[in-house]
Amino acid sequence: MFVDIARKINDLNSLVEEGLKLLKGLDDDFITANSVAYSDVELFRIVSSEVNTLDSILSLARFGKFKDCMILLRSIFENMLYFRLMAEGKTYRLWRMYPIIPNPGNTNPAARDSTLAKWQTEWKQGKHNDKEIISIDPVGQDRIQVVHEHEGLYETKDTEKKGPILPWYWVVMDDYSPDVKFLSDLPSIKAGDLYPDITAQHKLEQDQLYHHYIYIEAIVKNLLLNELVTETQTEYIFVHYNYLSSFLHPSKRAFSSSSYFQQHQNSDGDYVTWQILLYVCQIQLSFFRSIVNKVKRDDSKANTKKYEDYISKIDSATSYFWFIDNGPTQQDIDESNQKKIWVDEKRKGDPTVVYYVDPIERLIKFGSVFLRNNR
């Protein structure tokens, strides 16, 4: 079995190398005079950078730097999710906050509630013909929040909105500044700010960008909004986000990672490297799939066959890794049914297949079957 696992690791390494070679042809294959040049070129550069990071992870794994691999995987996993929005996210929401100032003799929240009722009635009656508003709600004692839902950003000349879309998530990434968001109100930074009032307003805007688009829960909500994941898949996302984060943030697993990895290596083979490679392959697959979907959406005549062939190849080679976009193996289903035997009577018949929380433990448990079924 040791030899079989080593061979599997070598095969997965070769697949990743094949993907790196394919990357070099993205510009030549898809950038044309009619391209939305800036976004397309930048998108391919992002993929190139992220996949090269995956290659670095493989190098670290060869030297047994497993904790470093998990930390880098945690970073690129989150980037992979946001990249889906940059490549495929057509729909986005904007939040507008309106403070309500009472007329003389009136006070909040009564004045706010009166205005809220008026706005909601007019909206429901369609008086403002604003089909993009999806909600009007009270916030605090004196504010009203209006949420707008839009689709895409189009070139000015594209009045029929039939051409390529520049997803709003590009604009967010271009505007977002972690320095302003997290550092601008620190006294030791603020002391050198010539225009603190302007910076304070800028920080409020950055807070909104972070809250609605950047942090992990917001990314997942926007993936759902664009139907790029299902509700169940969001649960899988949080499982892997939590698992990989446990090596990054202060935790028992982070502080005793060497012991953890030693416990999960045995005489059968190198399960840790195997699992790291499965992560690398599935994340690389996600980047390629997003690129192909974007290219085909923008140009139905684009020749993406060699990229789609690679996607099929890597998907087939790693199908036993129940990640986000694929389903459980028969072993996962059997394991789930076994666990459900012990749940209380009310939950019997629940069709949910129980997910795992530790991918390496799952690989050790089912590894021999996976090797036999995926030769």
Structure, explained:
It is a single chain. The chain is mainly alpha-helical. The protein folds into two domains: 2-89 and 230-373, no CATH class; 91-220, no CATH class. It has 17 helices and three strands. The chain has helices spanning 2-23, 26-30, 37-62, 66-88, 110-124, 168-175, 178-183, 187-190, 196-214, 216-225, 231-245, 252-255, 257-263, 271-298, 305-317, 330-340, 359-373, and strands at residues 91-99, 133-139, 143-151. The protein has a three-stranded antiparallel β-sheet, covered by helices on one side. Strand 2 and strand 3 form a beta hairpin. The longest helix is centred in the last third of the chain and has 28 residues, at 271-298. The radius of gyration is 25 Å and the shape is globular. The two termini are 12 Å apart. The model has no long low-confidence stretch (mean pLDDT 90).
Brief overview:
By secondary structure, the protein is mostly helical. 62% of the residues lie in helices and 7% in strands.
